[in-house]
Design a protein that fits this description.
mainly beta; Lipoxygenase-1; 2 domains; five-stranded mixed beta sheet; 439 residues; 4 helices; Jelly Rolls
C-alpha cells in the first residue's frame, strides 16, 4: 500500500497491444475519517495523470474505508503508458492530509470491440463552482458525482442511441428532500446528461444534453476526441456544454460508464446493485442537517433513513384525458400490527404521489425500530390531482419489485417482497389492499 501526501505521487505502468479506451479501477482510502455524520465538510481529492498529463479528479467519498473507484481514462494508443495518482490539497478540504493507494488496475477496451461505442462517447463532467454553495470545488463534499451508467437502444431504422446518466450524492436545489423520498425513494439526484444517436456506419446523427428546464438541447460544445465536455451549471445538476476547449472549473470527473440499467426496472435499481450509494447518500443528509432531530412518521420532514421502507412498483395509468392538470398519482400505505394507522408514502401531500408509470420507487416512513415482522398490510391509493376528481381513471398496479429497510450501516437489507398480480384502482374504488397479513 502506498501513502500519498504532498507532493508525492503513485505511478503505475501499463501496456496495451491495441488502441482503445482505458478504464481504471483505483482502490484507495483517506488518512482521516470523512465518514462522520458531523456537519464538517472534510473531503480528500486525488488527481489522475495519464502519460504525465492531467486527466481527471477522484473524490474519495468512502473515506477511510477501502473502496474501488471506477473511472475512464479515455483513448490510448497501443504501447506503454503511465497513470499517476497525486494528492490534490487545493481541491481537498484544508484539514485533509492525504490518501492511501492500495491498487491500480487498468483494462483497455479495444476500439474494434463491440462494446467500444459506450466508452468512446462517454462524457467528461466538469465540477460545479457556484456562488450559491460555499467554497470552490464544491463537488468534493456536496452533490458528488458517484456513478455513471448507460442505456443503449437499437432503433428500427438501424440507428443506435446511447444515453448516459449520472447519480449524484444529493441535490442542493430543485425537488425538496422529503419530496424526493416520497416520489423517488431516495435523496440522490439521478439525471441523464448526454445522449448520442449513431447511424449503422457509426456517424453521428444527433447529440443532446440535459439543459435548463430539464430540456434536451442540441449539443454543440467542445470534445476531447469523441468525449463531449459538459459542466454542472445549477444546484439541481443541470448541464451546460463546454464551448471553449480550454475552459475549466479546476476539476472534472470522467466516470466509467460500464454499469447499465436492469431491464424493466426504475433508475433506482442501479443504486440497489451498488448499495454503497445509499450510505454515501445518508452521510450527506446528516452533514447538511436535513434529518429531523426527533423522528416522527406523521411529519413530512425526513427522519433517519433507516426508518423507511424502500419500495419499487410497476403501474400503468389509463384515463379519459391526458391533460397535465388532469393527473392521478399513486401512493403506497403501510399498516403495522397492533397499530391502527396507515402510514402513507406521500405524507398526504397529493403532489408527492407517484405520477409516472412503469417502474417507480418510493419510500414509506414508519415508526422508529419498525422491522419487516411488524408489517400487517400494504395498500395502494389513487391520488387525484387537479381536475381528475371529476374525471374517470383506471390504474393497474402489477408488481412490487422489492421492499427493504436499511441496516445499521445504511446499506439495503435483503428484499422481502416480490409480488406479481394485478390491482385495479378507479375513481369508484381508489384504494386496494396489495399485500395482507405479511407473515
Amino acid at each position: 500500500m502506498s501513502l500519498l501526501s504532498l507532493p508525492t505521487a503513485n505511478l503505475y505502468f501499463f501496456k496495451t497491444e491495441l488502441p482503445g479506451i482505458a478504464l481504471l479501477n483505483l482502490t484507495a482510502s483517506t488518512l482521516e475519517s470523512t465518514e462522520t455524520f458531523s456537519k464538517k465538510n472534510l473531503a480528500v481529492v486525488i488527481t489522475i495523470l495519464l502519460d504525465r498529463k492531467y486527466n481527471q479528479d477522484i473524490v474519495l467519498f468512502k473515506g477511510q474505508k477501502q473502496f474501488t473507484y471506477q473511472v475512464s481514462l479515455g483513448s490510448v494508443n497501443s504501447g506503454k503508458h503511465t497513470v499517476e495518482a497525486i494528492f490534490a490539497p487545493k481541491k481537498s478540504s484544508i484539514e485533509a492530509r492525504g490518501a492511501k493507494i492500495k491498487n491500480f488496475v487498468v483494462n483497455v477496451i479495444p476500439d474494434r470491440s463491440p462494446q467500444a461505442l459506450i466508452y468512446q462517447y462517454s462524457p467528461i463532467l466538469y465540477g460545479r463552482n457556484l456562488s450559491k454553495v460555499s467554497g470552490t470545488y464544491e463537488n468534493n463534499y456536496t452533490d458528488i458525482p458517484l456513478l455513471m451508467y448507460h442505456t443503449i437502444n437499437k432503433e428500427p431504422d438501424g440507428n443506435t442511441t446511447i444515453k448516459y446518466t449520472v447519480i449524484w450524492s444529493n441535490e442542493d436545489g430543485g425537488t425538496s428532500t422529503p419530496a424526493l423520498m416520497a416520489q423517488w425513494g431516495r435523496t440522490t439526484d439521478i439525471e441523464w446528461i448526454y445522449q448520442v444517436t449513431l447511424d449503422p456506419l457509426g456517424n453521428i446523427v444527433s447529440e443532446a444534453y440535459h439543459g435548463f428546464a430539464h430540456l434536451p438541447l442540441p449539443f454543440i460544445g467542445s470534445k476531447e476526441g469523441k468525449h463531449p465536455l459538459l459542466v454542472t451549471a445549477t444546484i439541481n445538476n443541470v448541464m451546460m456544454p463546454v464551448i471553449v476547449a480550454n475552459y475549466s472549473t479546476g476539476y472534472r470527473f470522467f466516470l466509467d460508464p460500464s454499469p447499465t440499467l436492469p431491464q424493466n426496472r426504475s433508475r433506482e435499481a442501479i443504486m440497489d446493485v451498488n448499495p454503497w450509494i445509499y450510505s454515501v447518500m445518508v452521510r450527506e443528509l446528516f452533514k447538511e442537517g436535513k434529518i429531523e432531530a426527533i423522528a416522527n412518521p406523521n411529519t413530512p420532514e425526513v427522519s433517519d433513513p433507516r426508518n423507511y421502507l424502500y419500495l419499487e412498483i410497476d403501474k400503468t395509468t389509463m384515463q379519459s384525458q391526458g391533460l397535465w392538470e388532469n393527473r392521478v398519482g399513486v401512493a403506497l400505505a403501510v399498516k403495522l400490527k397492533k397499530d391502527s394507522q396507515w402510514y402513507a408514502s406521500h405524507h398526504h401531500i397529493p403532489e408527492w404521489s407517484i405520477q409516472r408509470d412503469r417502474s417507480a420507487a418510493t419510500t414509506v416512513e414508519l415508526p422508529l425500530g419498525t422491522t419487516r415482522d411488524d408489517i400487517e398490510a400494504i395498500k395502494a391509493i389513487a391520488i387525484p390531482l387537479g381536475w381528475t376528481v371529476s374525471n374517470p381513471y383506471k390504474i393497474a398496479l402489477t408488481k412490487i419489485n422489492r421492499a427493504f429497510f436499511l441496516d445499521n450501516n445504511y446499506l439495503p437489507q435483503q428484499s422481502f417482497i416480490d409480488w406479481r398480480g394485478e390491482i385495479i384502482l378507479t375513481s369508484e374504488h381508489p384504494e386496494a389492499i396489495v399485500i395482507k397479513a405479511y407473515p
